[in-house]
Design goal:
Elements: E1 5-8, E2 11-24, H1 25-28, E3 48-60, E4 63-67, H2 86-92, E5 102-104, E6 117-120, E7 123-126, E8 132-136, H3 137-142, H4 149-152, H5 156-159, H6 161-165, E9 169-172, E10 176-177, E11 182-186, E12 195-201, E13 204-208, H7 217-220, H8 232-248, E14 252-254, E15 263-269, E16 272-277
Parallel strand pairs: 4-5, 5-8, 8-9, 13-14
Antiparallel strand pairs: 1-2, 2-3, 3-4, 6-7, 10-11, 11-12, 12-13, 14-15, 15-16
The structure holds zinc ion.
Length: about 280
């Protein structure tokens, strides 16, 4: 298996996983006819799509940044769920929750915010006690919209909202630098405020993709949107522009839902773009 760690100039990126999620094709991609998947069987697992729940830990300039926090602890009644592993992976890779200076959420869907908080004595406390928590302002607004929250931001009341009462929230508004090496880049569509995170060091670059794509198949089929993409047209537009830029500028990609560890590049072969894993 490919290494969980890559270096970009002076920056180290490490993939940590909360496990995986699996969906039937017709469930996750309801608008794509099943026969259209035939050329891509190699990307499927018994006719299902399987997503890694990848977070990326970035060590840069003396700071430790965690991008996305998985789906969260699995409930006791679902002991066989193949997720809820992030804290185990922290231990396995010798990372401690109090190493984290910043938590950055690419967006506020449930599988990116799950481990933000824990409860102690009936109160919410941050899982990462030294961190401030960065999130897109537009997603913060959307997750408070009663028309959207119950279906689109299901665990926000438990995993996101209490961060404000604890005084830990920082907002990302449009493109902005987060540290000397990290820049938030708006990639909207999947959610209104969705952000990808650009890593730059010593002339080298990588992009933590977030959910601008869920599967390498979408590099070949950038129009294929899933039910999780809140604005399908904007999702397509953003994805196409992003894929073109990633190929043109040969930026390393860290894709949290692709097969772990999710590192690769966009390459062009006979006029088509492909995902090429590291
Ligand atoms: Zn996701």
């Amino acid at each position: 298996m490919a290494s969980h760690v890559v270096r970009v100039g002076d920056v180290e990126i490490m993939m940590l996983s909360d496990g995986m999620l699996e969906f039937d094709l017709c469930n996750f991609f309801p608008t794509i006819a099943e026969e259209n998947w035939t050329p891509y069987e190699a990307h499927l697992h018994e006719h299902k799509v399987r997503f890694n729940l990848g977070s990326y830990l970035i060590r840069a300039g003396g700071r430790t940044v965690l991008i996305d926090t998985g789906l969260g602890p699995k409930p006791a009644e679902t002991p066989d769920a193949p997720w809820g592993q992030l804290m185990n992976d922290f231990k396995a890779k010798s990372v401690r929750p109090d190493d984290i200076d910043m938590v950055v959420m690419t967006h506020l869907h449930r599988d990116h915010v799950g481990w933000n908080l824990k409860t102690e004595g009936g109160k919410y406390v941050p899982t990462f006690p030294r961190a401030r928590y960065w999130m897109p302002k537009k997603d913060w607004d959307s997750c408070h919209d009663p028309a959207l929250q119950p279906t689109r931001f299901v665990n926000a009341p438990q995993c996101v909202w209490p961060l404000a009462d604890l005084g830990l929230v920082e907002f990302m508004n449009g493109e902005q630098s987060l540290t000397r090496e990290l820049t938030a880049v708006p990639t909207p569509g999947h959610t209104p405020g969705h952000m990808s995170i650009l890593v730059t060091s010593k002339g080298e670059r990588a992009l933590v993709l977030g959910d601008a794509a869920h599967s390498p198949v979408q590099v070949l089929e950038p129009d294929w949107v899933s039910r999780a993409d809140m604005d399908p047209d904007l999702t397509r537009q953003t994805r196409k522009a992003l894929i073109e830029r990633l190929e043109r500028e040969q930026i390393l990609v860290a894709a949290g839902h692709f097969e772990a560890p999710g590192y690769g590049r966009i390459v062009r072969l006979e006029g088509r773009r492909y995902w090429k894993g590291l």
